[in-house]
Amino acid sequence: MSPILVRxxxxxxxxxxxxxxxQAKFRRKHEVGINPGAxxxxxxxxxxxxxxxxxxxxxxDRGRKVQFVIEVETGESVNHLEALAEWAHLARARAxxxxxxxxxxxxxxRRLAEDNNIYVSEIWSYHPVGDQMRFTSVxxxxxxxxxxxxxxxxxxAANALPKAPAKDVKPAAxxxxxxxxxxxxxxxKATNVKNVKRVKTLPASKKKxxxxxxxxxxx
Length: 219
Prior knowledge:
Layout: H1 9-26, E1 31-34, E2 55-58, E3 66-72, H2 80-91, E4 97-102, H3 106-115, E5 122-129, E6 132-140, H4 204-210
């Protein structure tokens, strides 16, 4: 039962009686859990999005996978507020969502589901026959259920700039032998060395020849 809804006592008793009748109906083929009244015994989903449908049908193997969930409404609870508070959340569960409403409220339930984009797999009506309720399938959704949304991957910062590729660092030019340079820092790193002034040098043998002998003194 929705925490925002307080049913009249008569409707609440009828509501819980229908839940127990559905439990007896499906227990041959399913493991059936129920949450009548204010009970919260069989949850669906994980925190913080934990739901407590009126009826939960699970497989009978060890995994106990949820097959589908059922929400039972009475005349007072088929309304816009209940649709948004309960149906919308159950429709987003991984298991198919079945809705049971009184026979006279089928059109209202379908309109509420369509107007609020709530995916309901099946809608069943019920009406009393003696001491029991008779259930009738009145609507089956032929569209595929919406797939659950996956968390979006974190986006890179918009202002992040790509790293510039490392430039090739050229080694500093070495002074050329014979350069008329007093300060090595002023040497240009240009590849064209034609502009570099060189000091002309002579071989050692020619240097000796170029030295003039001192003239002999006259007596």
